[in-house]
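Thread: quick sanity check before group meeting

JM: Hey all, I'm pulling together slides for Thursday and realized we never actually wrote out the predicted structure for the chain we discussed last week. Dropping the sequence here so it's in one place. If anyone has concerns about the input, flag it before I start.
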Amino acid sequence: KHFVGVISVALTVFAAVTSSCNPQGDFNLPVFMTSGDFTIGGIFPLHYRVELPPTDYIKRPLAAQCQWFDPRAFRWALTMTLAVEEINNRKDLLPNHTLAYSIFDSCATPVTAQKAVLSVLNGQDVVQSVICSGASTLLGLIGESGSSQSIVVSRTLEPFRIPMISYFSTCSCLSDRKQFPTFFRVVPNDDYQVKAIAQLLKRFDWTWVGVVTEDHDYGRFALQGLKREIENTDICLAYHEMIPKDYTQEQVLKILKVMKESSAKVVVVFSGEGEFYPFLREFVTQNITGIQWIASEAWVTASILAETYPFLDGTIGFAIRQGHIPGLLNYLKTVTPERYPSNPQVQELWEALYGCSPSTSSLKSHLPSCTGKETLRQEHSAYMNTSSPRVTYNVYKAVYAFAHSLHNLIHCKPGNGPFENFSCANLNNVFPWQLQHYLQEISFSVSGENVNFDVKGDSIPSYDLINWQRHANGDIQFVKVGLYDGAQQTGRELLIVEQAIMWSHQQNKVPVSVCSNSCTPGFRKAVRRGQPLCCFDCIPCDIGKISNQTDCLSCPEDYWSNVNGTICVPKVVEFLSHDAMGITLTLIAVVGAFLTVTVLVIFLYNRGTPIVRVNNSELSFFILMSLTLCFLCALVFIGEPTSWSCMLRHTAFSITFSLCISCILGKTLVVLAAFTATRPGNNIMKWLGPTQQRIIIFCCTLVQVVICTAWLTISPPFPYRNTKYQQSKIILDCSVGSDLAFWCVLGYIGLLACVCFFLAFLARKLPGNFNAAKYITFSMLIFCAVWLAFVPAYVSSPGKFTTAVEIFAILASSFALLFCLFTPKCYIILLKPEKNTKQHLMGKFTK
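JM (edit): ok, ran it. Output follows.
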């Protein structure tokens, strides 16, 4: 008995199952639907958002409610129906075949979009179907607007290998053919949009920007792309905020607080208009001013936002290319509640446009009633704006892409087909993957634009730069002020007509958005610790550097910074010129030479007197002439050094001083020999006659000449620009060339002076009223002291003072020799002529 009861129950259940197919929950019905040979689906965000019902886990939750009807998206859906009707009426495209469509509402959320695509796949008569095993003949799908929705829809379609063409999903993630092998789109991916926005920020020097994104894949990938594009630039993100998926006032107020407190005046928004609209409602309540909005293509042409929120005037952003759709405006006017009395979306359109509920409406509404026959006017721009269709045009292109693919599939010639064994598709049973093959290879023209897809399913990247401008009558217009062409060479993609742009608050001046103002000339950036690179302090450049407002650059070697650190100016070239110091030394040298010549004239005039003739007057004349040359060679050291002057000054100085000291050495030997010769049997004077004296002078001088010749041959002195000793100046001096040769020259002169000093010192106490050895000893002592003091002074003196020290040593030693050797004689010749006798000089006179 029990067994019979079980069998009875089972049969009852089976009978119930086979008699009807009952859905397990609420089922989406198409917004628009037709029948035909080939069916394509369409999914559009006809509502902004979804309100999720409360869940207490006790009873089954209610279905999610779509809220805030979007007339703009409704226009997109109607464009699909218009395009299908156009194609079905054409004779040259899909002849003898018709397209059918089934359009659903995604409510701009991924969950509802997935529900919609499952509805498309299940077929149109699932509720009335006797069995539930039947599936629709869907060959392709047009959708979705949001990238997150498209990701869900594409992954749902992928197991069935059904191709999908998106008209507004721009996320770069969708170009991954491994994850989305059946996805195509007629809109550029966001990799190009973020490149365009980054170039826009650079163009107007907006280095401190805020970013607001929707909390979906579109916003996340767009943010990643923008960060990648500005990574090595001067642009920094002041903040990044996400509009929450589940809209709450508290979270939005937190975002608005960040925006209000930030100094960033340029805000980039990656969001759909549905997500952005409620955010802006809260923005109005806050006292936030001076924002320059940068719109993504998702809302840059959203008329409803432009009309509702005047503070968005001046918004600038990149929009997808516009095109021409013939007959669209008239077609939109035919969609009325009177023609579609049972379509709830048409009823909602009337409520959105007129704020009234049509008499034919079955919706419960608290709005005043109207006839539903009202005339659509141009001011309903969110719905009626067909002057520059962009997303609408993409929908139009997507429908034609499917139509041309089907056309090529239908006209496949057996034996030349693309499939196995060169076969073609069976027109009675076309598979979606076969249509995808033709879709990948498609190339056609619509409204003068060539449409095709690359290997990733993307289309040609191109944008119009749009500016929101409000006219005096209050009308808002989307004015094209530039374009971005991704096919151009790097750096030439962006073209902007700046004078055509109207910025926020009706300003013609480009807004400024920086964390720190640019450093003035002469200052450089110093990054603040813990803050982005765009936030910095300005500190003066070091001496010798100039600023390019970013960093301090060292001037070239021969240049130095000016006082303000703004430009490099030629360094001051310093050398011992005819300035005050040079003129003073020149006068001293000339005076010394004049005094020497004067003494020479006196000696020539009195050459017959004993005081001149004593100790060989010829040597005295040689000494005076060489001293004259010593004074004059100091003049060679004054003035700009040249190759010839450098070689001349050192060789002339060394040879003339060697000649002078050699003559003094000869005189010392004569004095020493003269007094020694008075001793009996001493015959030394015959070895120091005039000829021998000349030979001694010649040989001593010749040694110095040989040294100088070798010096000039091997490594001669040359002009040297010293930029190391004093960075702000170029010290132009003569480099000695060979240090060894230079110190050999000085050493040889020192050697002659020491020998002369030693011999004169030995003869200093010889008898006679005029013992020249005493004066020679004293002159050599001063000479050696001067040159010993010269060495450390020469090494340590900077710049032109090195040359001045050398001139001073030459003049001081020359004056020492002149005064010590010849002043006593001139005194006797000029003032004490009575002592100018042989007896007086020999000390043999009587008082």
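AS: nice. The CA atoms of residues 543 and 773 lie 59 Å apart. Residues 523-571 form one domain.
JM: adding both to the slides.
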